[in-house]
Amino acid sequence: MPIKYSSQFELLLFYSDAFSNPWFLNQKLILVDHKISKLQASHHEMQFQVETTVIEWQRYRIHVMKELKLSPNTVQEFCQLNRDDLVVSDYFVENCREHNDIERAIMYCRTGIQQAAQDDNSTVMYHCYDQLVSLYRDCGLVNEYRHALFEAITKCDALNSNWYIQLREQYSSADWSNVRRQISASIIPQTDFEWDSFQNVSVRPYVLALQRDVKEATTPESQLSIIKQLDYLQKYHGSTGLEVADWLWQDWYRHYPERKVLIDAFDEWIAQIIEKY
């Protein structure tokens, strides 16, 4: 338990720069943890307000920990318990970088990915993979970097991502086709497209014809024809056309990875999306 200060002294302790020596800063940490514990144990009917306040105190704790220049080992327990807060997660990885404790940061990301998979938390999983990829890249660990990119793409269903472009840049054209086949075999199956009444009227017959034609599109010429039809779908059917085109591209990537002309065009389409945004 923290020392029982008056509320006035607590305000001074938290908000005055006069109390910035290590002893006072550590007292701040103790008080912050006590406040967080009390909030988490409360049964307030406005639970979202409690959660918001907890996050605010967690962010304040990060500020104090930075002032104390605490080691990764010292702050790891707090950062593991609050990994779902991406600001906390970023602080820990950056702290590991500053202390040249890269192995600890990598393990933190790996355990975060495992926990996110168990919790079905796609936001945390995506963030952990992003951190892991950047760690391997910045350390010059080429094989690990490639593997992390491949894993991120396939586990996060992230064909339309900068990871995909980064992975493509790691391989020659001759080798990339084989990597694409591996991605196609490993990526999460795509769910059926949901048609609403408008889509039924405007694009469904067109798309069904495309799905029929693509099965026979084994020659470069026939694949180019498919690409032109898909371009037409995107240009002249508004947001619905774009949505359906994206679904078709990813469907074909999964089912026809050997169609080089078609899937090469998909690669370029992704590159344009990434460059645009």
From TrEMBL:
Recorded superkingdom: Bacteria
Protein name: Uncharacterized protein
UniProt lineage: Bacteria, Bacillati, Bacillota, Bacilli, Lactobacillales
